[in-house]
Amino acid sequence: MESSKNSLIPSFLYSSSSSPRSVLLDQVLNSNSNAAFQSPNLEKNSPSPTMASRKNFLIASPTEPGKGIEMYSRDFYAACTVGGILSCGLTHMAVTPLDLVKCNMQIDPAKYKSISSGFGILLKEQGVRGFFRGWVPTLLGYSAQGACKFGFYEFFKKYYSDLAGPEFAAKYKTLIYLAGSASAEVIADVALCPFEAVKVRVQTQPGFARGMSDGFPKFVKSEGYGGLYKGLAPLWGRQIPYTMMKFASFETIVEMIYKYAIPNPKHECSKGLQLGVSFAGGYVAGVFCAIVSHPADNLVSFLNNAKGATVGDAVKKIGMVGLFTRGLPLRIVMIGTLTGAQWGLYDAFKVFVGLPTTGGVTPAPAAKA
């Protein structure tokens, strides 16, 4: 059973205790040991400071006793990247029917007047299969976005924390969450944008294409490769505030849950309870995300559907009130569920490979000399 379970995870996600990197880590730890700890009063069989320090570097894997993933190593970021692919790609694909109705409500509100009527019209005109039109560009696009979003968020969060130093990182942790998530999303949207353009065109123009395989060349033939990135600026306008709210509010909400709603410290809670907290925190964060990013979402849908349209055309056609309200209730339900499921899947994968769940512990400031 153990060997079959290990085969599901790429071997590079684990660092062997006998690997060159682990040997180098041992040498570094041994060289940094303070001579003061080598007192003759210490018993030979007592744990050494080196071994105590090593526990802070390696996290035990549930499938490989004695081995683990080194925090903030290449394997750590690789694991976070794989978790991001699974969490974003699978969840966005699962809610394709909701996304399809939302996009059509945004493009043609006279025809798609409500959620129920929207589903009814699509079922009548396109059948059950029509609800999953555009699922391939959705899966590919949001898998690429999730890989960059979660992988680079973990990288930038660590990078900005190191720049600030332990004391300021603890004091201004929310700013670090915001900066790290914004930086990651800038990169993630470059990966998502071409797939999003094809997805919207396939979903809102019946007969344009069946999916990604024929929709991509048709789109390029019609608008050129530059047309694939026509919606990048509105996509940044939608996704960057969304992601900043998604990560910063999630980290804050989870920390508050562990502080005020759960009597035991996080490390004493079961993994099941921790994953439940991740889902709950993600769902609440998703509601805030939907409200903040909804106007830009309307712009993205309009621009990718109308050839040669501008932001001014979209505002004139939809109206300022419509930008904030059209399709919002459905998007709150969709994004709340989506975000909760994403954090649940992401942290479940981290637990599976032996990493701790995200958030819930306030960074401690550095001790003053």
From TrEMBL:
<dbReference type="GO" id="GO:0003729">
    <property type="term" value="F:mRNA binding"/>
</dbReference>
<feature type="repeat" description="Solcar">
    <location>
        <begin position="172"/>
        <end position="256"/>
    </location>
</feature>
<dbReference type="InterPro" id="IPR044677">
    <property type="entry name" value="SLC25A3/Pic2/Mir1-like"/>
</dbReference>
<dbReference type="Pfam" id="PF00153">
    <property type="entry name" value="Mito_carr"/>
</dbReference>
<comment type="similarity">
    <text>Belongs to the mitochondrial carrier (TC 2.A.29) family.</text>
</comment>
<keyword id="KW-0809">Transit peptide</keyword>
<protein>
    <recommendedName>
        <fullName>Mitochondrial phosphate transporter</fullName>
    </recommendedName>
</protein>
<keyword id="KW-0813">Transport</keyword>
<dbReference type="GO" id="GO:0005315">
    <property type="term" value="F:phosphate transmembrane transporter activity"/>
</dbReference>
<keyword id="KW-0812">Transmembrane</keyword>
<dbReference type="InterPro" id="IPR018108">
    <property type="entry name" value="MCP_transmembrane"/>
</dbReference>
<keyword id="KW-0999">Mitochondrion inner membrane</keyword>
<keyword id="KW-0472">Membrane</keyword>
<comment type="function">
    <text>Transport of phosphate groups from the cytosol to the mitochondrial matrix. Mediates salt stress tolerance through an ATP-dependent pathway and via modulation of the gibberellin metabolism.</text>
</comment>
<keyword id="KW-0677">Repeat</keyword>
<dbReference type="GO" id="GO:0005743">
    <property type="term" value="C:mitochondrial inner membrane"/>
</dbReference>
<keyword id="KW-1133">Transmembrane helix</keyword>
<dbReference type="GO" id="GO:1990547">
    <property type="term" value="P:mitochondrial phosphate ion transmembrane transport"/>
</dbReference>
<feature type="repeat" description="Solcar">
    <location>
        <begin position="75"/>
        <end position="159"/>
    </location>
</feature>
<dbReference type="GO" id="GO:0009651">
    <property type="term" value="P:response to salt stress"/>
</dbReference>
<keyword id="KW-0496">Mitochondrion</keyword>
<feature type="repeat" description="Solcar">
    <location>
        <begin position="273"/>
        <end position="352"/>
    </location>
</feature>
<dbReference type="InterPro" id="IPR023395">
    <property type="entry name" value="MCP_dom_sf"/>
</dbReference>
